[in-house]
Write a structure and sequence with these properties.
Elements: H1 3-23, H2 43-48, H3 53-60, H4 71-96, H5 104-132, H6 136-155, H7 167-190
The protein binds 2-acetamido-2-deoxy-beta-D-glucopyranose.
The site of 2-acetamido-2-deoxy-beta-D-glucopyranose has 5 residues, from helix 4.
């Protein structure tokens, strides 16, 4: 076999393996696989470190076209996905206000959610600046606030769970925001900054950083 034939055979075999790998993926749906997706240090590796790897892959992969994965660009996409999901849920909330039989308790919860989601949108816009300047400490604080705001909204439905018709959309904000926080922590750990000396920060469910022993 000459070199070209070998190369063709290799390419076919590789493409087939890629196909089988994709067909077996947990999502079960076929999608075009970016070559860098499966490489060590690729998107799959990055997403593996997040709380919701499948959501991470599915929300980032269709928007990522570069031959090399830049984690901070992947983060920018996940941040935008969180922003989009929040805006989408805002539309649902605004629609619910129009219900004819709007109960006082539902109205109160919607007011809380509308305010909290407004804060989420503000925080995300500020996070974009922090990411641009690679200020991970700031970005982490902003996304911690995003998670808190999302929780304040869902907490406001305690006792009237059956009225929480956008619980699924709300949970997706939590999951996307959690993934952003995970990627930020990963970037922060790989790029040590001149942080101010150990300040006590409130624990977060995504806080998987092992601090220095003092
Ligand atoms: C966010 O929404 C905009 C406008 O609909 C869209 O162009 C963009 O691709 C979305 N981004 C992500 C990451 O989903």
């Amino acid at each position: 076999m000459d070199f070209t034939s070998k190369l063709i055979l290799f390419t076919i075999t590789f493409a087939w393996l890629l196909f089988v790998g994709t067909a077996d993926s947990p999502t079960g749906n076929m999608h075009v696989v970016n070559r860098n997706f499966l490489k060590p240090g690729g998107l799959l590796d990055l997403c593996k470190k997040t709380t919701n790897p499948t959501l991470c892959e599915n929300s980032i992969q269709p928007h990522f076209f570069k031959p090399h994965l830049d984690p901070s660009e992947a983060l920018t996409i996940e941040v935008e996905a969180t922003l989009n999901q929040t805006e989408k849920t805002m539309v649902v909330i605004n629609g619910l206000y129009k219900k004819v039989d709007l109960s006082k308790s539902l109205k109160d919860s919607l007011d809380i959610c509308k305010e909290q989601y407004g804060s989420i949108l503000d925080a995300i816009k500020q996070t974009k600046d922090a990411i641009a300047t690679r200020n991970w400490v700031e970005a982490r604080a902003k996304f911690g606030a995003v998670i808190s705001s999302q929780q304040a909204c869902s907490d406001s439905f305690e006792g009237i769970q059956q009225e929480f018709t956008f619980a699924g959309d709300s949970k997706t904000i939590f999951d996307l925001g959690g993934n952003c926080l995970d990627i930020i922590v990963d970037l922060q750990q790989s790029e040590p900054q001149n942080d101010p000396p150990m300040t006590q920060s409130p624990p977060s469910p995504y806080d998987n950083v092992i601090g220095p022993i003092s």
